[in-house]
Specification:
This protein is an alpha/beta fold and 378 residues long. It is built from 13 helices and 15 strands. The chain has an 8-stranded mixed sheet with strand order 1-9-8-5-4-2-3-14, with helices on both faces. Bound molecules: pyridoxal-5'-phosphate.
């Protein structure tokens, strides 16, 4: 049996045209027509003033933190239930992460935990340089509540929309609410350039500066002069060509992923102990990954039983992200729980898993996944 992956790339067939254009012009470099076009197509799609495409989503977060002046001795608040890349750039900048728990309606940052954390930081006169809000598995966080709290304390927001490109919150695209939004085009994301990312913002001056920083901070001079330390974070013109071909089918990919999610729900929702990741009213998730929890008391099996049974049939499934406050690399970091004595993300990690969710997942393959799960339940 052919392996079924969690979230494999899904090409549109339109990518080669843009790559060929770059070859025909011999523009095999960072910068170039595909880069410019992808930036404007991405800002149009998301209805923001501008975008700057870079080598990865992680690079985009790093640039956003640098632009907001996060450095040694500073703190940055970050969702705990996320991929490690959300927080690593905090460390690159010599700042300290403070992790914020999830809440049940979105699995994303708890406004209640954030409020407590900011209130305490304010009292201690050490407000964070930024709050990184993650939109997990495509689901938007409680953006209005979170933005209100951040505005109350005048703390800038970076929206980590690496997993939520194409998702919506009250009709507006995910990733466009903070001072900066970031997207990822890594191989496993809803669209991919094989590797890449983007920073979006309505602050065109900040984006201009991000391009300068991403190009080794080169001054305007013939002789390669540098007044600051920069990075080599630009996206290549070839890679941007893949991005253009992918962006054309993004809305289709969202529908396909949502369809996969709905088929799982249809097949498994009546199983006792199975709870699928919710979708907050007024939001539309791209359902990047189908995530659910399995309560062993009610289901009679654990999420590991599901993962193992699928692995035995050459099918990839995974636990939900291990919360960052539990990661050895971040040991000793401060952490604010959803309720004073209760960590919701710990519970999600204890019971949560992600099922194969590719937009190119064949119905027959999905039916195999479903029947293997069902066979555990009889
Ligand atoms: C994938 C991902 C990133 C990092 O993106 P890369 O392009 O792989 O660097 C950041 N945050 C989250 C939540 C992600 O899932």
């Amino acid at each position: 049996m052919q392996r079924i992956f969690l979230s494999p790339p899904h090409m549109s067939g339109k990518e080669q045209k843009y790559i060929k254009e770059a070859f025909d012009l011999n523009w095999i470099a960072p910068l170039g027509n595909n880069v410019d076009a992808l930036e404007s197509e991405l800002s149009d799609y998301n209805n923001v003033s501008g975008a700057s495409v870079v080598s990865s989503g992680t690079a985009a977060i790093h640039l956003a933190l640098r632009l907001l002046g996060a450095g040694t001795g500073d703190t940055v608040f970050c969702s705990t239930l996320t991929f490690v890349a959300s927080a690593n750039p905090i460390i690159y900048q010599g700042a300290r992460p403070v992790f914020i728990d999830s809440e049940p309606a979105t699995w994303n940052m708890s406004p209640w935990a954030l409020e407590r954390a900011l209130d305490e930081a304010n009292k201690n006169k050490r407000l964070p340089k930024a709050v990184i809000i993650v939109n997990l598995y495509g689901q938007s966080a409680r953006i209005d509540d979170l933005m209100d709290i951040c505005q109350k304390y005048n703390v800038p927001v970076i929206e980590d929309a690496a997993e939520s490109l194409g998702s919506e919150y009250k009709g507006r695209k995910s990733g466009t609410f903070g001072d900066f939004g970031i997207f990822s085009f890594n191989g496993n994301k809803i669209i991919t350039t094989s590797g890449g990312g983007a920073l979006v913002s309505n602050d065109m001056k900040a984006l201009e500066r991000s391009r300068y920083l991403a190009t080794q901070a080169r001054d305007q001079a013939l002789h390669y002069q540098h007044s600051e330390i920069g990075y080599n974070y630009r996206m290549s013109n070839i890679v941007a060509g893949i991005g253009r071909g992918q962006l054309e089918v993004l809305d289709q990919r969202v529908s396909q992923r949502r369809r996969v999610f709905n088929r799982y729900v249809e097949a498994l929702r009546k199983q006792s102990g199975f709870s699928f990741m919710p979708e907050l009213e007024g939001t539309k998730s791209n359902r990047w990954l189908t995530a659910l929890t399995v309560d062993p008391e009610k289901a009679g099996i654990t999420h590991f039983d599901v993962i193992e049974a699928l692995a035995g049939e050459n099918i990839e499934a995974r636990p939900v992200w291990k919360p960052l406050h539990l990661q050895p690399a971040f040991e000793g970091s401060e952490y604010y729980t959803h309720e004073e004595w209760y960590s919701f993300s710990d519970e999600l990690f204890q019971y949560g898993l992600c099922l194969p969710s590719g937009s190119n997942l064949k119905e027959t393959d999905q039916d195999r996944v479903i029947s293997i799960i069902k066979s555990l339940l009889v």
